[in-house]
Design brief:
Blueprint (H helix, E strand, L loop, with lengths): L7 E3 L2 E3 L10 H21 L4 H7 L5 H22 L2 E8 L3 E8 L13 H15 L4 E8 L3 E8 L2 H9 L9 H13 L12 E7 L9 H11 L2 E7 L5 E5 L8 E5 L5 H10 L3 E4 L2 H15 L1 E7 L1 H23 L4
Parallel strand pairs: 4-5, 4-7, 7-8, 8-11
Antiparallel strand pairs: 1-2, 2-3, 3-12, 5-6, 9-10
Length: 335
């Protein structure tokens, strides 16, 4: 169904042709007509000679049975009229096309071995499995970021190209989360448009273990994502016990420093919350793989208004058959 349609809604059901619902006003007319006919039937029956004669001419039948069959027919008509108004409801449907931009942190802190063999190696393995398991209709791109951010692979359905780029990621100094979001947005906004001339449903999945230390601020990136109406889901990957050995660039062969690099969470959660994305925290490879599985199922489908007229048509058919069957059983005639 076209996402542009904003149907008239009653509770959780929308109607694409709501004007046809006026036909439901026929139901009270039919109900009143039925009651009038029943009253006239009673009057005519009362005019027959005597109670004995009446009982011999008219077989004794429970009045409620007539009402049941008539009620079922009215419900069947109501169901047909509702179906004619093209009812629809929000349902989870698989996307024909969508784009996921993976943004992976390659800053030096991703060398920490609190997740064996390292944070980066774990992130690479989980990302490869994620890409490999995405539905065929989804396109995926890759951005890596440290002091700057760059597009490693533009959105594509070529899984092998993306996987090869993930395998080739290398560490570099600093962390530019804001730049990663800006770069991902540029890649998405420059992707080919869909058949309606719009950007396909898109999302950014950003994995990091730290906070922004270079490039544009996260606040600016959040504003840009909101303007483009693209959600940024974030994953904080690592543990509070992470640390790396850092070589002094002045005397790299002489001195090494042990630097603690605990995972940062608050900024990544803020980015997800303020852009309408999802936030996840993973402190092991298994947890990260589970996170990617959740994200894959979320981005591979979406909520759309889907017509359910066939539900009401089926209900109308069932009610009509039931009314006819009861009428044959009780009265030896179809109606």
């Amino acid at each position: 169904m076209n996402d542009d349609i904003d149907p008239f809604r009653v509770f959780d059901i929308g109607f694409l042709s709501a004007g046809r619902l006026w036909l439901l006003l026929l139901l009270p007319v039919l109900l009143v007509s039925y009651l009038v006919l029943q009253r006239r039937r009673a009057v005519y029956a009362a005019r027959l000679a005597s109670t004995d004669l009446l009982s011999s001419v008219l077989p004794k039948r429970s009045g409620w049975r007539r009402h049941v069959t008539a009620g079922l027919l009215l419900l069947a008509i109501a169901s047909m009229l509702i179906g004619f108004a093209e009812p629809a409801r929000e349902m989870q449907v698989e996307r024909d096309r969508a784009i996921v931009m993976l943004a992976i942190d390659v800053s030096l802190s991703m060398e920490a071995a609190d997740i064996e063999p390292s944070r980066l190696a774990g992130a690479q393995k989980a990302a490869i499995d994620f890409v490999d398991d995405l539905p065929p209709g989804l396109e995926v791109g890759l951005v890596s970021f440290a002091e700057t951010a760059s597009v490693r692979v533009s959105p594509t359905r070529d899984r092998n190209q993306v996987i090869a780029a993930i395998q080739g990621l290398e560490l570099a100094p600093a962390t530019a989360i804001g730049e990663a979001i800006f770069t991902s947005l540029d890649a998405l906004l420059n992707a080919p448009l869909d058949e309606t001339g719009r950007i396909p449903p898109s999302t950014i999945v950003l994995l990091s273990d730290g906070t922004t230390t270079a490039g544009r601020e996260d606040t600016l990136a959040i504003a840009a994502a909101n303007e483009a109406q693209i959600a940024v889901s974030t994953i904080s990957f690592g543990t509070p016990a992470g640390s790396i050995l850092y070589d002094d660039p002045v005397t790299p062969q002489v001195e090494q420093f042990l630097i603690e690099v605990p995972v940062a969470e608050d900024n990544l959660q803020r980015i997800a919350d303020e852009t309408g994305g999802l936030y996840f925290q993973a402190s092991s490879l298994e947890e990260l793989e589970a996170v990617y599985a959740d994200i894959g199922s979320a981005v591979g489908s979406g909520i759309e208004f889907t017509e359910i007229a066939e539900w009401f048509a089926a209900a109308a058919a069932a009610l009509t058959i039931l009314a006819g069957g009861l009428s044959l059983w009780w009265f030896q005639r179809l109606i």
